[in-house]
């Protein structure tokens, strides 16, 4: 029961609100220690960001980091006028990445109408820095209908002088989706890498051995396919859309000397030949998981395993997994689910 309660708390983002006694009962009490480690690392990264911004004369107010934290994410408040400089500082000085990156009219519309910009920096894990210059508040129906969002900026590329027209793009896009063109805005989500400490336990949940062929759908920088080949001597294929991440993954494979075991493909793994795959790994947004898991259950051979990890609650339309368990390491938290193809 306590394991189920912990899974529910991770999915709801409320691990910090679990009674201390419950945290002590689960996983040898490690969840509390891990969340304190995450909080300390988040606080240190936030201090680094604040110092860099202050050095560029950006007025900044850090938001307090809770003593227990399950996500590597933090918020700092800035003035709207400083937002472009603040984002550029994180990219140019601290190795952060803004995703997605808008250009021309979309970029002008973003800075005029958004309330924050999210940037990410990845090493062993991914930190998400949210530079926020306004507090989101309930808005009127007209504002909700005409205020553009990332999905609207991604719909059409307008010139800078036409940026205000995104207020018209939004209702047209919503109407199109209402008439049956289903939205798929996963590419607008920031890239989050699987923390390295979670990879071994996730491969254990998949019960990988040397005879397996692993496909990582959305492999990012290739850390899972490389770790699988190094640890188990199996073959692995990584599928990734982002050209920059494909290059990073291929460099990682080459540096590990695993070109004979690991292939990285730029493209959609769900539309590729998966007939020889025995294990599929997923760390994708819930909206993508809702589409990907049923496709994999249909297309993978019998006996293949699908392992998905995610902190957020998944769609109730997904089939019930064969196995669900929290994974708690020294510096990361997730929930692993496994389906076996019948």
Structural notes for this entry:
This protein is an alpha/beta fold and 342 residues long. It folds into two domains: 2-136, Beta Polymerase, domain 2, CATH 3.30.460; 196-340, Rossmann fold (3-Layer(aba) Sandwich). It is built from twelve helices and twelve strands. The strands form two sheets. A seven-stranded mixed sheet has the order 8-7-6-9-10-12-11, sandwiched between helices. The protein has a five-stranded mixed sheet with strand order 1-2-5-4-3, with helices on one face. The longest helix is centred in the first third of the chain and has 26 residues, at 30-55. The two termini are 28 Å apart.
Which short descriptors sum up this protein?
342 residues, alpha/beta, Beta Polymerase, domain 2, Rossmann fold, 5-stranded mixed sheet, 12 helices, 12 strands, 40% helix, 19% strand
């Amino acid at each position: 029961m306590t394991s189920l309660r912990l899974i529910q708390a991770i999915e709801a983002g409320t691990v910090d609100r679990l009674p201390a006694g419950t945290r002590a009962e689960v996983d040898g009490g490690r969840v509390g220690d891990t969340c304190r480690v995450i909080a300390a690392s988040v606080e240190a990264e936030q201090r680094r960001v604040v110092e860099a911004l202050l050095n560029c004369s950006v007025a900044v107010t850090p938001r307090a980091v809770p003593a227990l934290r399950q996500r590597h994410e933090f918020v700092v408040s800035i003035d709207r006028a400083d937002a472009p400089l603040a984002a550029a500082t994180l990219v140019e000085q601290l190795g952060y990445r803004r995703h997605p990156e808008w250009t021309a009219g979309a970029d002008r519309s973003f800075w005029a109408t958004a309330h924050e910009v999210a940037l990410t920096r990845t090493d062993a894990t991914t930190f998400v820095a949210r530079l926020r210059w306004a507090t989101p508040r309930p808005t009127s129906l007209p504002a909700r209908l005409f205020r553009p969002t990332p999905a609207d900026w991604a719909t059409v590329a307008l010139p800078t002088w036409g940026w205000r027209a995104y207020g018209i793009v939004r209702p047209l896009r919503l109407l199109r989706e209402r008439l049956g063109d289903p939205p798929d805005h996963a590419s607008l989500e920031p890239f989050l890498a699987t923390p390295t400490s979670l990879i071994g336990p996730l491969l254990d949940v998949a019960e990988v051995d040397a005879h397996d062929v692993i496909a990582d759908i959305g492999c990012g920088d290739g850390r899972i396919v490389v770790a699988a080949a190094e640890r188990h001597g199996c073959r692995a294929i990584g599928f990734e859309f982002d050209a920059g991440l494909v290059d990073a993954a291929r460099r990682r494979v080459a540096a590990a000397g695993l070109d004979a075991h690991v292939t990285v493909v730029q493209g959609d793994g769900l539309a590729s030949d998966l007939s020889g795959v025995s294990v599929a790994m997923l760390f994708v947004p819930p909206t993508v998981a809702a589409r990907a898991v049923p496709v994999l259950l249909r297309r993978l051979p019998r006996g293949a395993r699908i392992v998905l990890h995610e902190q957020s609650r998944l769609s109730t339309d997904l089939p019930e997994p064969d196995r669900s368990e929290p994974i708690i390491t020294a510096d990361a938290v997730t929930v692993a689910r496994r389906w076996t193809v019948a």
